[in-house]
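Readers outside the structure-tokenisation community will struggle with the description of the input data as it stands. What matters is that the chain and its backbone geometry are given together, residue for residue. For illustration, here is how one protein appears when written out as sequence plus structure tokens:

…
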Amino acid sequence: MEKTGMYTALNEHIKRVRQILSKDLNERDTIDQVIVSTATLLKRPISLGRDHLKTPAQGYGRNLLNQDPLFGFVVVAMVWPPKVGTPIHDHGTWGVVGVADGMLNVTNYIREDDGFRSGHASLTELGTISARAGDTTHVLPPDGDIHKVWNSTTEKTISIHTYGKAMDHYNVFDVEANSVKQFELHYTN
């Protein structure tokens, strides 16, 4: 697919998300409808330019595609080199992830403590899913938000993420130390 077709599909997705958010739905219904929009977006191959698919020297690429001025949601292209992933983290907002190319693994966790003790967090692993090109998954705070994502393959993976708000920080959890720390986030592009 040529780049203009992808940008048209991306703009259609952004327009659909705006329409969904204008309905003032609960978060569960919002996610369900954004999942449908993301699946529609992924029916066509992703063909974004180099400016939207950057990857840092280490880690994975977080490339901002759109930040909506009215509703505040963001659409981000993530580039996952082989064998690279995130720490265990949260977002503090709903999110829908669609795998555009390749495969991602997602391990979900639930927080067992009440969150009132600063710097402390006790997590239990819930399980891991593998998502292939065309598959979608989601995060929904508070119970469905803590997870880690990684590319277990030897090929690059690209995913498209739609979040309820822009994120400039997230909590990173250490299961072994039963700890949590806040980290700043930056876009690669």
The helical segments are 3-22, 27-41. The two ends are 23 Å apart (CA to CA). DSSP finds two helices and eleven strands in the chain. The first strand starts at residue 61 and ends at 67.
